[in-house]
Amino acid sequence: MSESSVFQPKRDEGTTNGVTGHALPGERGSRQQAEHSSSSTDYFRTSTSQIGMKAGMLLRNLLPWLAGAIFLTLWQLRFFHVLLSLEDYQLPVPSAIAISIRDNAEMLFRYAIYSGTEMLGGFLIGSLLGALAAMGASLFANSGRAAVTVLSALNAVPIVALAPIMNNWFGDGIWSRIAVVSVITMAAMAVSLFKGLTSIQPQYEELLSSLAASRKQFFWKLRMPHALPSLFAGLKINMSTSIIGAIVGEFFIASQGLGYLLSDQIRLANMPLAWSCIVIAAILGIVLYETVVLAEKRLLHWSRAHTSAQ
Amino acid sequence: MRPMFLRLLKPGYRAWVMIWIISIFVLWEGLAWMLHLFMSPQQATSRLPYLHVVMDSFFRHWNTLAEQSSVTFGNAAIGFAGGTLLGALLALLMSAAVWIERTLSPYVVSSQMVPVIGLAPIVYGIIHNAEWARIVMAAYVTFFPVIIHTLKGLKSASPQHLELMRAYGTSWRARYIKCLLPSALPGLFSGMKIAAPLAVTSSIVVELMGAPDGLGVLMVSSLYYGSAQAGMFWATIMLSMGIGLISYLFISLAEHWLTPWQPEFRPKGGE
């Protein structure tokens, strides 16, 4: 919290929602939203004075942190427990969760690495397969589009059902979860990339065909560059689904990992440790997602689309 | 060359979908046959049973399957509706008051990077009522995609249109009904399309955590019997996939009906 207030004075007056030095996940998101909305919000507040705007902006940047702090404080003071008539063993207070994270730091770290390996492995394999499928499908007009439609049915497969199947196929090791994650990420990538590869303005196609471009040139000079934002949109969707896939996959049959620890500790009614798994998984998710966003910003600085998530 | 090509595309596309589905089924049978060649029947069946075996147990246990899946689907649908309503309302609230948006948007945005379904066992532990746990989880996973995409839709309202309406001195109600809500609808629908299969999955996860009834329970119990019930197990998976698909298609259909002005729904080939 103090971090964000420290950065306020450095802010350039000219830029409405300028770049601050830190990359806190929530803050980034809100900045994006704000950039997105600047046109419509400016419109409602044209009459406010310059100083008022500056103070208002400071307040608005602090608001999310304030809300989070109030939420945590109320939770710590057992406000929700009274409201929903819960006991401590059902919903542990934040301090208990923090203590549990500290006490089990070593194990949580090890399991986070394990689950992270599953996520990344499945994410890479699935995204690659999906991308290859989309590229192949984009070469054929009718059958390709139909194939992607059929493939998109994989999106509807409940992740939980995949876990036992993959367990039968690949044993109960790390590969079964990697397979689960690969299957669920493949479809999203194929759909997203295929959309990017095929939704090309007819003018560009006409230009290239009037220049007598070959099929290969069509693909590499027009379709691929045009599809890169969609590729990253697919990667972003896949990053978040791969986390769900790995955690849910571990609910079933696993001897390691955050999902395993989560379901195991719930069975033992050790709620603080179960909640620490959720917290660690959330942090892992945010870090990996941010990595993809950062890679997109680096590689696709020319694209206007990169600010809109998904 | 293009327009004629596009006009021919429609029936060809439908036919190709059928061809792909049939070839997947053929591939399935072939793969199962190959597995049966190289492995013992138990091993092969637990890996991939013949499609006709799955179909057979699907129709034989149709009553049980229909009963249990209606429980799962019913709770998921109630939760889905509730989550959509809450998400849409909150998105409207966020678009109306900037300070609410500023406060909540970081949490809404980061929610999509967090494994929300992981909370299912915890929610079930807190509520201890299978029905309510399913409804709450379905609503919970629906809530975030809906809010994100509805807000995006509201933001996509053209500033020129809004300016014009302001110049004409229209009331805020007219502004919402005539401009903001129509531009939010496509966003709402894309959020709902993402959320629908997730809602079904989340209620199945709750069932796996020890609910008394539902498709997830059927899945676990048939898994327990191993290869003897492999057909039943695969039938439950096919059914849950079918429920997810049907809910997705239903929303797509509703989208087609309610927002016919979207570019991808316009008749093709005329341009």
General shape of chain A: flat
Structural class of chain B: mainly alpha
Supply the number of helical segments of chain B.
11
Low-confidence stretches of chain A: 1-47, 306-310
> What is Rg of chain A?
24 Å
Q: How far is the N terminus from the C terminus of chain A?
A: 28 Å
Helix content of chain B: over 70%
Could you explain the architecture of this structure?
The complex is a heterodimer of chains A (310) and B (271). Chain A is an all-alpha fold and 310 residues long. Helix content of chain A is 76%, strand content 0%. The radius of gyration of chain A is 24 Å and the shape is flat. The two termini of chain A are 28 Å apart. By secondary structure, chain B is mostly helical. Chain B has two domains: 1-48; 49-265, MetI-like (MetI-like fold), CATH 1.10.3720.10. Chain B is elongated. The two termini of chain B are 13 Å apart. Classes of the chains: A mainly alpha (310), B mainly alpha (271). The interface between A and B is large, with 75 and 66 residues.
Give the structure's gist in a few sentences.
Chain A is an all-alpha fold.
